[in-house]
Amino acid sequence: MLLIDKNIVPQTPVMKQFFEIKSKHKDALILFRMGDFYETFLEDAETTSKILGIVLTKRANGKASDVALAGFPCHSLDNYLPKLVRAGHRVAICEQVEDPQHTKGIVKREVVEVVTPGTLISDQALSKKSNRYIGSINIQKRNIGLAFLDLSTGEFYVGECFFEEVISNFIRFSPNEIILSTNVTYSTSDWYLKFNPFVTKIDEWIYNYQNAYRILSEHFRVSSFKGFGCDRMKFGISAAGALLYHISQNLGSPIDHVTKITPIIKQGRMGLDEFTIRNLEIFQPLSSKGEQGTLVACIDQTQTAGGGRLLRQWLHSPLLNKDEIEDRLNLVESFTKNQETLMTIRKILSKIIDMERIMGKVNHGKSLPRDILGIALALQDIPVIMNALEKTEDTFLIDYSSLFLDTTKISEKILKTINGDASNNFNIGNIIRKGVNIELDELRSMLCTSKSWVENCQKSLREKLDIPKLKIAHNKIFGYYIEVTKVHQTKIPDYFIRKQTLVNSERYITEELKNYEEKILGAEEQIFSIETKIFSTLCVQLLDSIGPILDNAKLINKMDLLCAFAIQANTFKYVRPSLHTEPLISIKKGRHPVVERLLPSTEKFIPNDLDIHSGKNQIHIITGPNMSGKSTFLRQIGLIALMAQIGSFVPAESAKVGIVDRL
Description:
about 15% strand, 21 helices, six-stranded mixed sheet, alpha+beta, globular, about 45% helix
């Protein structure tokens, strides 16, 4: 909240504009674009200075009073923005929406985006193998509607639960931010006290069911949500519609890359409460922070960021359906049997870009030429992967190959438009291939001849003025200039205009030289404009084809994870579990997947057996002194069951696992 009275602050045009914008975003830090810098003023400047450790200065603005000021270069936004948001602040990015060169008076500025902890998508803020969700809760007594969206990938989930089940959903999605209706009191809620997410309140009417249904149906262009499997989730739809409205309308963030809703389903998923997840050390060790010494750290052999994110999703919701688990195990087994194919695919996967997050950047207008090239190269690899799978003559691998969609036209369009060695800097140019735009080619040709023009001009002046060492050079301050040593000053004609005097030489310009310089600069500006426009058009075309791109990306993620399971099985001698629907666990020479990996090379994990079934031995009592391995044995059994039900091979000589609905 801006506490300083604007009436005592210098009312320059800039400050008037700032106060007008600030009045609409009172709870946000305003990053005010001024030329090549983002500036903050008054209390925003004081806060920004402390968080970023940058100098707090003052600007008089032509008045008696001073204005606190703190700023940083625009190119540093990705470094500084995450720090401001992580410090618990909303940040409104206010851009110049007019060209200063074609504007009289103050440049028009508008807030183009509001960034919060749940909507931060810069590369510096994201963990490659973890999702970053913003959530929405619709509380109706004991019934809760839920929605979670990862704005970086477009993954969108909706569900419903009872009040006491909210925490289990928070464990699964770990939202960085939650939005709520203004009529909700949350400060004493269990989920808030435990997770302490950043909370944003929005108007109550946004959660109206009819309003939310309309928002969702218009966005997804459907009349019913039966196809998504969530048509009966009245409270969930209210939460989901409110979330999309808040992100697109209140925050100004584009959501075109959100192409489907995935229902949060409790049925068919193993129950994992917070206590079990913590004590099995699936994601966090009991003794320290980070992932070292956890199940996810030990079994994550994925090559892609998307595969790593999928592993964490599977670990949060193991399957109960035997056929679905067997489908995963069949593919893992096929990869273990086809070693050469496995290694070929793993090599390809190691080079594939994170298509889901790149498409998120495309949607936000933040993608770079190399990002788009990465999409094309990844899509180009799909036929190679399909061919490798089909050559195995393995039924399961061939069937999986047939799931990929044909995106050849998309990759060809990109590669025909973007230069293979394109820079990410549009100011350097050479982003767009030759032949794409005639005007662009002509402008480039003119720039290519500029070097020879300068050389010819220099040669001509040397001969004409009889000054052998006369040279034409260029710098950012003066542009093109003619430099002559002082020995030859008397030979300088009248039409030479002196620009700078140095110790041993003089620098001049001529009308002809300045005219040529303006021509060159004009060409450079036109090249920048044309290339930017072509690139933007290409990005729009990519968004039109986002469905097939994301579908293929998800297939690559799944294949990467199944390949990782196969590598793990071959490397550490894991076996395929035998799944059963009756209650039994029979494990021969089982091992703890984490402990055996952490032991020193001089020590060996001692395998052990277990046999429990629905007959007489339903209950076993484990006894022994402290530190004798009782807890390790118990956790080992739980982890083997968990691994089996996500479709992984398990650390044992043999394992019969009756599918369990809860650990």
